[in-house]
Amino acid sequence: MNNDLKNQADELAQVFASDMVGAPTGVGRFGEFGGMFVPETLVPALHELEAAFKDAWADPVFRNELDTLLADYAGRPSPLTRCDRLGEQLGFQLYLKREDLNHTGSHKINNVLGQALLAKRMGKTRLVAETGAGQHGVATATAAALMDMECLVYMGEVDIARQELNVFRMRLLGAEVTPAVSGSRTLKDAVNEAMRDWVGTVEHTYYCLGSVLGPHPYPWMVREFHRVIGTEAAVQCRVALGADHPTGRPDVVVACIGGGSNAAGIFSGFAAFPEVDLVGVEPEGGAAIGHGIPGIVHGMKSYLMQDEFGQVSEAQSISAGLDYPGVGPEHAHLADSGRAKYEQVSDAEVIDAFQLLSRTEGIIPALEPAHALAWVVREKESLAGKNVLINMSGRGDKDVGQMMEVLGDTL
Amino acid sequence: MSASDLLPFQASLEARRSSGGKCLVPYLTGGLPGWELMLEAVASAGADGIEVGIPFSDPVMDGPIIQESSELALAAGATPPGILDGLSRLDIGVPLAVMTYVNLVYRFGYERFADSMVKAGVSAAILPDMPLEEAGDWCGAADAAGVQTVMLAAPTTPDERLLRVVERCGGFVYAVGLLGITGERDSLAASAKVIAKRLKDVTDLPVLVGVGISTPEQAAEVCEVADGVVVGSAIVRRVLETGSPESVADFVGSFREALDKG
Ligand SMILES: Cc1ncc(COP(=O)(O)O)c(C=O)c1O
């Protein structure tokens, strides 16, 4: 036991020393990506936020308060589940990190509880957020209710239609939901609206950004708030793989990529160990790394789907949470450096994977992590015999209405 | 610096100021159907310079009116090279600045964009999502090409930072008159004169207040402190509503008149 604790401490030291998931350099740079490309009005607020986050993150009182909320309110640690039936069918050992079992149904709550506590500490009284699938919006509305703050969530008109359950949940929780009606009327446009709101309200409003996106310090801060996923998973994998396993680590860690927050969280527990393959799975129609080139939008330089003149493309994905033409800057860096690889799956593969996990394991996944699952299904031959860990970032309740329309009478 | 050393945009503003007048810079979205005629009409209505917007798909500093004009221009096929090309063929006797978002410039290539501006006869650039922290690469290219970069100063900018903003700034200082994005407002925000005064105290560059200046009266009021105004949404709304160069010129003329009366 003592030995185990010492191993864990050594390992954690290695993880934190790794420049792969360390603090950004300069003005929020991960390699050449990141930065702070925002209107002057917001720059002082971002500097203030950076200072406040650093201060809070180093303060044991803040950390303790957050850990207590994560445990007693959100239900952490989330379990690690070994999927024997599906694993046998696919020909490898499959483990799921069960972020779907968190309060509010996804990993998003980790980040939101951290940011909402920080907002309180900074004396802000109002939260604004963007949301795609509505999971980040629901988490933000939840934290606002818990901490007695005003909350306004921007959501693309298209997403409001396909995730109406989450819209109603947000309203039940006392938040206001405002449609974003410009552009593609999805997540990209919701981010625009939230940023515009913040330009006008920055003195009393806190922008609770929902992924490892946007201007510095968000990509770094949001990843730190999700680091708990990777830290827990690393310990749980060692136990699950048993004392006989030479490293106690999985061979492959797979996560879906919208902005990249659930992936950043789970990758952070394994990036320091080069023998662990890290795989991010993008939707075919929203593949910033797969189909984009470097660009600058939403405050950051990163990979971006855009036309020859730099106009941002409209993403097209069945999953509202991944329907975004950009990606967090740290993932752009992990891709360029070769530490992680990024793959794409089609909507059709995702629909199959969604049903497969439901039927073999009794777990209805959200459409977003169904992307990660779809990739391992496609790659089952090359994964044969390996230990594969998927971040099950959310549960599928929110998608059941949409899937009823897609699957209709076929069931 | 003597007046003859100044690039055209700044020279025009300084000439107006030294004759005791106040500067008027209308904003127009480039690439809308008939935009060149609109520019000519506005030039002859008393503008000291014109800010031409190159539309971007995701304009986070802009409110509904400029968003709409941007979408219409993009739908009509507006592109950065197309607009710069159009500007190079115009001879309207008023200096030009371009206002756009940094991704279009980054995609074009900073050096190539700066060179294309020079070829098009445009002497200043305004990039609202490129604050000091990120200005280095573009400003290097712009300085080398002989293009000025207009920086924004906001009500939230602290004093110490204001000094660094004006030091990096060229052409004029764009004082953001309120906390918020572009769009019309019923009255002049209290913050407008405050930021203008703070800037006047630390720079000799012309200080123009933009964002939210919607009526000739508001323009005259803020110019009790500022050297001039940038007027965007109020003009663009009339462009969208009337499509008529004459009526837009009349509207711009009413600002000129108010500023001249003081
Ligand atoms: C369950 C779930 N997973 C993943 C995502 C995508 O976000 P990210 O890539 O930041 O993890 C979302 C976003 O809505 C989500 O709801």
Give a description of the structure:
The complex is a heterodimer of chains A (411) and B (262). Chain A is α/β, with parallel strands linked by helices and 411 residues long. Helix content of chain A is 45%, strand content 18%. Chain A has a six-stranded mixed β-sheet, with helices on both faces. Chain B is of the alpha/beta class and 262 residues long. Chain B has one domain (3-8, 23-253): Aldolase class I (TIM Barrel). Chain B contains twelve helices and nine strands. In chain B, helix 5 crosses helix 6 (110-119), helix 6 (110-119) packs parallel to helix 7 and helix 10 (216-222) runs parallel beside helix 12. Chain A binds chain B through residues 27, 35-45, 182-183, 188-189, 192, 195-196, 199-203, 295-299, 301, 304, 306, 308-312, and chain B through 56-63, 67, 71, 74, 79-81, 102-108, 128-134, 151-158, 161, 165, 176, 178-181. The site of pyridoxal-5'-phosphate has 20 residues of chain A, from helix 6, helix 11 and helix 15.
Short characterization:
The complex is a heterodimer of chains A (411) and B (262). Chain A has 411 residues and is of the alpha/beta class.
Question: Given the C-alpha coordinates, what overall shape of chain A results?
Answer: globular
Give the chain pair forming the largest contact, with residue counts.
A-B, 37 and 43 residues
Helix-residue proportion of chain A: 40-55%
**How many individual domains of chain A?**
2
Which small compounds were modeled alongside the protein? pyridoxal-5'-phosphate
Number of helices of chain A: 16
**Rounded average pLDDT of chain A:** 95
